[in-house]
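Why predict the complex rather than its parts? Because the way molecules touch one another can change local conformation, and only a joint prediction can capture that. The input here totals 361 residues.
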Amino acid sequence: MKKYKIGIIGATGMVGQRFISLMTEHPWFDVTVLAASARSAGQKYGDLVAGRWAMAAPVPERVKGITVKNAADDAESIAAQVDFVFSAVDMKKEEIKELEEAYARAECPVVSNNSAHRWTDDVPMVIPEINPEHLAIIETQRKRLGTKRGFIAVKSNCSIQSYVPALHPLRGFGIKRVLACTYQAISGAGKTFETWPEMADNVIPLIGGEEEKSEQEPLKVWGTVAGGKIQKAASPAITTQCIRVPVSDGHMAAVFASFDKKPSIDEIKERWASFSGRAQELNLPSAPKRFLHYFEEENRPQTRLDRMSEGGMAVSIGRLREDTQYDYKFVCLSHNTLRGAAGGAVLLAELLCAEGYIQSK
Ligand SMILES: NC(=O)c1ccc[n+]([C@@H]2O[C@H](COP(=O)([O-])OP(=O)(O)OC[C@H]3O[C@@H](n4cnc5c(N)ncnc54)[C@H](OP(=O)(O)O)[C@@H]3O)[C@@H](O)[C@H]2O)c1
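Output of the joint prediction:
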């Protein structure tokens, strides 16, 4: 099979590094271009990430010698060389919007890890197992941009990927109210314990902007495509508290939920056990065989034991029980830089290729 040529914009950062690690053995995608800021442009990738490489496996040999391009100034030439780009830049929101649109207008699809376009009406925000039908909005977006190939698709925030997958199969019971408290890893801030020593033996009760994203983004993911935009779902009512904890990788969520038609514990477990989505149906290379893993053991899921479930792409759930204020409570765990960031974006790109939205040139 001919591989898709890909570019990574923001390749030197934490998420960019994760994209590179995931591409090393990817059966469909081949890293062709790496780009970052003007500070990095013109230098060899291996030199740029020396002392900054945060992945467990070493820097792949085949990318070490690639000369990094300037993501903004070289956009047109990068767009011409690749079939699509992954975007993981840390810039001001308006700058990211502009940069990603420049690639899309240059007929280069953009699969973005950034939040900048998550609320653009005609940009789909997709978790492949949950709302693959939102990709239909791409045709509307292409009309607005005046493109044939180019468009932007985004993944959701990492925090919601711990609890939205567990709630999704229960929507048939009419989810009324949700309270989710997330305990989020430091890699979500692009940090390690070496670069953020203040996090050792510490908990920080604020992650800027995270609670609003965690409460609002599920409503777009559960929304419907109508009238040339994605219309937000009207329910459930969601409230969250998002807390930074001294963990390298893995976001945990303590979830409380009430339903219109309260299911039994067995019915909930059965919905979780039997759930599979479009990613599994299409047997996409990065899709977990089983998206949701329920643990009967009372002390699971645990971050260190379970975050790498199915290559960090599955969501682990445990401790389902009745609550005194809500119908039920339970705990969920997902890997924030795999399922929640680069892995989720790679799975989205696979879906876009499999569904014909991205074609190799
Ligand atoms: N870490 C996570 O788990 C996570 C999860 C979800 C979403 N995100 C989001 O993903 C994005 C990247 O996060 P990160 O943790 O990887 O950040 P990071 O480690 O700080 O890396 C930022 C990247 O952006 C590049 N960059 C900065 N300014 C630029 C500019 N003006 N033009 C082009 N490239 C520029 C940097 O290049 P230089 O090396 O040249 O400066 C670097 O490659 C952020 O928007 C973040 O909010 C992160």
